[in-house]
Each structure stands twice: as C-alpha cells, then as structure tokens.
Here is the input.
Amino acid sequence: MPDLAPASSLSYNLLEKRRPTDMSERIRATYDIETPLPVAEAAAMLAGEQSSGTFVAVPSETPELRERFAARVEEICAGESVATPALPGAKQAARYQRARIVISWPLENVGTNLPALVSTVQGNLYELTQFSGLKLVDLSLPAEFCQAFRGPAFGVAGTREVSGVSNGPLVGTIVKPSVGLTPQQTTALVSQLCAAGIDFIKDDELMVNPPHSPFDERAKAVMRVINDHAERTGKRVLYGFNLTDDYDNMQRHYDTVVALGGKAAMISVNSVGLPAALKVCGRGELVIHGHRNGWGQLNRHPLLGIGYGAYGKLWRLAGVDQMHVNGIDNKFWEADDDVVNSIRECGAELHDKRPVMPVLSSGQWGGQAFETWRRTQTTDVLYLAGGGIMAHPDGIAGGVTAIRQAWACAEDGMTLEAAAKRHSELRHAVEKFGRKEPS
Amino acid sequence: MPDLAPASSLSYNLLEKRRPTDMSERIRATYDIETPLPVAEAAAMLAGEQSSGTFVAVPSETPELRERFAARVEEICAGESVATPALPGAKQAARYQRARIVISWPLENVGTNLPALVSTVQGNLYELTQFSGLKLVDLSLPAEFCQAFRGPAFGVAGTREVSGVSNGPLVGTIVKPSVGLTPQQTTALVSQLCAAGIDFIKDDELMVNPPHSPFDERAKAVMRVINDHAERTGKRVLYGFNLTDDYDNMQRHYDTVVALGGKAAMISVNSVGLPAALKVCGRGELVIHGHRNGWGQLNRHPLLGIGYGAYGKLWRLAGVDQMHVNGIDNKFWEADDDVVNSIRECGAELHDKRPVMPVLSSGQWGGQAFETWRRTQTTDVLYLAGGGIMAHPDGIAGGVTAIRQAWACAEDGMTLEAAAKRHSELRHAVEKFGRKEPS
Here is the structure.
C-alpha cells in the first residue's frame, strides 16, 4: 500500500528555498502535502488563505499590507507523484504531487495566542480543494512566542523529584478494569500496587467522576493508602487522578487532590483543549499527566492531520508534564519509528522549556524495554503497563518486578532472552505476553 | 476513487440487531468502520476497549462488572468489502469489511461529563489495529445527559431577537483582509457595512488580539460605530468578536464586549475545546458564533474522524448558538449533501435544546441561495459572504443587496437566471463570481 506509507518514510528533493532572512520573529510550519496543482502554486495559495488573502482580491489588500502580513513560502521539497489522491474532494488531475513545504508567518499576525496559532497553522487548510492531502508535521516558534508560556512546571526532572525516582524509568500502571470498580475496589488495588513497589498509578481515561466512583470519594480513599504508604516507607507513589471534565469540575477536583496531599493528576488533552490545559497546568501544584486519546484521529492518516513534531510542542507549551507517545511494539497501529521520534521530540530544544516525560504505554509488559533502550538510550520515561502488570502470572508484584528486571537488563546490554533466563518474573511475563500477536 | 466515497453515499445491509431494551439510560454511538476481522468480532473488541476490557483478561473484570458496565454492540449493518485498507496500520487481511455499527454504553460509565464522553466514544478507538477505518457518525444521548447542559442560550430564535431580523436569512460578512487591518481600518469597513444594511459582521478566525489590532482597541472602535448606527437607525448589527485565546483572555474580552454593549462574539471551537466553550457559552450574555476551522482534519476522510451528526451535538450541548456548516457549492471540498445534512442537524431534535443557527460560508455570494433554499426550505441561516460582499463590482452595498435579492427570489421560486435579469446587483455578482470555477 505505497500510497499510505507512514510519514516518516516519505522522501523529498529540495526544489526551492528562500534566501535566509531573519526568522527570529516568524512562525514556521512544515507540511507534507499532496496537490493536483503545481506545488509552488498550491503552497502560495495555502500561505494566502491563512494570512491576508481570500478567494478573490479585496480592495484593502494593499501591497504594503501583503508585504507586512502575508505568510511566505520558505521552502519546497518535491516528493513523488501519484495517480490516486490520498483524500477525496480535491480538484481533479491526472497526477497528484507530493511535497514537503515550509510556510512562515510574522509573529505579529498571531501574537502569543496558542489557540490562535492552531487556527493559523491548521484551521481551514484541511478543507482546501487545492490539496488532496495535508499534514502539519512540525512547528518552529520564535523565542518571543515561547516565552509567553511557562511550559511544563515539572517535566522530567520535576516528576523524578516529586516521585523520588532518581534513576531508571518510572514504572506505572492504569487501574483496570477501566470502569466499574468502586472507590473501595480501586483502593484495594492501589494498596497492592504500592506494596508491589510501583512508582505511578493512574485512572483510565474512561474513568473520571461517574456515579459508581465519585471523584472526591475515590481520591480520598486512594490518597489515604498512598499517604499511609509514604509515611511507612518514605516512598511517595504518584497517582494521576483524571480531571478531564468541564472547567469548574477540573478546578474543584484539582483542589481536592492538592488538599489530600496528592502530587499528580491527568487530563485527556484532546478532550479538554488548550485553554483548559493551560489553566490546569498553569497552577503548577500537580504533575500533569497528558493523555492523548483521540490521537489516532489526528495522526493515523499519513497525509491528514498533525504529526507529533507539531502536536508535542503545542501541549508542551500548554504545560503538560508527561505525554503519551505509545510504546515500542505497542498494541496500537503506530510504528516504532514514530514512537522513537515522539520520545525524542519530548526532550528536543524548545527555547527554555523543560523536557516533557514521555509516557510509553499500550500493551507494554517489560519485553519492549530492550528495543526502547537500544533505540533511545534514555530511561527518562514513564513506562506504563496495565494488563502487563495486572494480569502477570505471579500477580501484581511479579508484574512490576518483571518490568524493573527488563529495564535493568536492557541498560546492562543484555538481550530479552538472556534476561528471561536470569529472572523468573520476567520469564513468566515472556511466557504470557511475549508470544502473543500484539493485540 | 470508489474507496473514498463520501460517507453519505455508503450503503449497508442490516446483519444483526439486539432486541429493543430500555435505552433511556444508554449512550449510543454510530460508527462507520472498516476492519480486517469479522465485523462482529471487531465491534465487540471496540466495545470492550472502551469500557471494561483491556488487551488481556484482568482478575477484577468479573461477570457482574461486565454485565453492568460493558459497552454493548446494538446493531451491525454490513457494507462492501475492499481489497485495500482505507488507513495504514491495521492487521493484514485479504479483504477489509466495511460496516455501520451501533455501540451503547450505560450512562453511569460517563456521568454527565462532556469531555469524558468524547474520550469514551472516540478516544483510543482510532488507534486500534482491528480497524482500517473508523468514523463516529452519530450520537444518541439520554435525556439525563442532555439535561445537564443548557445548550444554546440564543440559537436561531435568540439570534433573530437580538439582531431584530425576524424573517429571511441573516446576511453577514467577515472582515477582510483577515489580518493586517488596524482598528481604524476595520472600523471604516464596519461603517460601510452598516450603511449597506448588513446584519452580522465577524472577525476572521485568524484575527484575535495581535499587536497591530489589539482586541480592546478594535472592540471599542467597532462598537462605537455599531452603537451609533443602532441609535440612528434602530438597527443593531451583530459583530462576532473573536475571543479565541487562553481562558483568562477569553473571559476578559467577553467582559469588554458586554461592557461596550456588544451582543455577539465568536470562538474557534476546535482551537479552544469543549470546557472553554461551555464556560464562554455558559455566560449567556452574548450570542456565540462557533467557527469550526480545523473541521477538515476531523472529517475529510470518509473513514476517519467524526461526522457532523456527532460533532454538531457536542458543540450544541456546549452551548454554541451558531455553527459553521460550509455552504452549497462552497470553495472547500465538502459535498453539498453533507452541507444539507449539517444544516438539518443544527435543528434536529436534541431533547429540549434550542436549534443552532447554521452558518453558510466559504465562497458564498448569493448565487447559492437558490439551491440552498430548494434543498433545505429554510431561511433560518446566517449567510456569510466575505469576498462575495467585499469584492462585489458595485461595492459593499451592492454585495449585500445582491445577496438579499438572491434569497428573496429563491423564496419566490425563481431561478438564478431569472433573478439576475430582474436585479442588476445580483446580475453583477453572477458576472463576477458565477462563472468561476469554485476556487
């Protein structure tokens, strides 16, 4: 299916590039496009639609106004051409040309307004008939724009500090079943998880504040166990309480968590949006775990939506401390290359913003630690396993232990096979989870 | 390109349907799917992933818990099967089966939490390898869920009341150029538009609060003209000031508009998210114009994302009074059938919620009134023309007049040709805009 190769495998040849000018005050966005038009014409049209132009010339669009405010085509790299368009609704053509293009805008078009940035670099673009494919793959933002946002209050270093885990990955889990447990049942599980030595526990994204597990009641019960455990052992387990809700409930539940001595919470970023994320993260009292459910809607098509290079920056500026990036050999569709790139993006330079802690998840059970370490050489990750811990043959403690064994052996340069011979918990994990088709 | 036919043209045969049970307490979601698996298996997997299940059985997922909390497959209608998957990343198969399925959840899984509903009915679904296509096309929500939200404070009737336009479509425009005008230039344009008899004016979605047109300064200058015009003529032109920003700025700008005697504002719904929309609309002092830029990202692919049947309900519950639905023969990619369906959806039964006023836009100039009227038989619309008014050969007043002529003649059952013979402004619009390829 060559027409739908993942974005990371597309290749381009540089066709046009503007001479370098001072870009310090310009927003740059990189797109993978497919168009029935000559690429330069399509790129110019995109720049016009998203700045000073409309579908016909209007009297007040003077040359001076255009010179100052028009978006500019900075770079065009041509890719392959195809006979069948990737998306419906484009103008008809014999061939559709793919390209990677860079467009820039003066910062003064947008100001330091994150939602307005989204409307500018994405907005109506996806609806244009001049494109049969369009994906925003990266953003480069002026320092002045980024300085308007604190970004992650905690990020990697802050998460380590609050959790007391100074080395190795944080090992975490999701309360399962996702829905249906009472606060008491949840607490019983949390108690077992604490005893098993877990670092991080979170609500499932489906669990917020339903009648059978009211937020406040669940938070109180869970925090009693976590606080007791911290007092007894000195170890503070982080629990990401799911705040995802309307604005007032999110604030109220945030207050509840703080009052109970909690140190973390989570939001489903796509479900709450940037202004809510800015507000929640802006308080800076809790480590905010960013769940990106809905990501597939925005990224699964190689020529529609947004890539993590752009997406990750938006949420990092909004202040999310941890962000889901799937994991190597995950149960979802996302390819390992994209996962590795997303992990890197979490720590890439973004002016003075703290690195986000990547959250590896989706069918993780320890076995993937080896390939993850080999390809990223970092343990600055939160490694989340739901079923991989809950359904471990030796029980929850066995599941946590197996994951720690896997990471320690991976860092030591061992193979999974060798590690499984050495450690029985990891061996049992391999026997249960390792032979399955990822499902 | 039969593989990418618009969703509205897909056809299905009923395969399975549960016997009717009391659905009053269940959330129902309808999906168009494509899967490498037997459809019933894929549907069951979807239901499991989004309720009580995970990728392996976990000890606490008891039969009692499943019975009470599991999502259920309510209906399966089989469609065609295809050899090539619509999206990458699915399990390999010789054929991929398309189907329309209905899944239901107990209301108590979600509570009355709109963002949590989104995570439940969309969430991780798009990432599952069991699907090579998945689009949420409709939602049916229990009365108890809907009662938790006021919905549009104004909607169609309220917009008519505030604007004083009791009959016919509201005629509106967007300030163009989108960016670059100073508050004084914007005001000069607004003054002309008021004199031309316009009903509604809005900021472009690219224009919020940039250094060259600070929100407060623009709002003050514009409202002076609008208030003067209202005092002199008794006609109150609505101006949709673009609030799209972080939470505090949105609230502050809302206050500014109210203090200046403004009656409307706008938000880019996808850029601000549901909690911010709930909060802004919840104040109920301003008619809120919902701009859905970014819609193409969510809807352009026939087997990815969300259809207006579901999308429109979410934002209507959030309280948006007016919503963009493109227009007949628009400059964007969206097909007329989808536009007509979206217009109907704005007024479809949703318990006691007021109808949303559909906003027709994107390359409108009056000529499309005839087909719009023929197919919808309603004038409960806001008909927005940017270039169609600004670039009219007889000037702005000619542009507004041409649109009113078009709608009046359409309601009288005339053709565009006959109407253009009768009215010179409309004839000039036809001459300038009517012969072009929609671009």
In short: The radius of gyration of chain A is 24 Å.
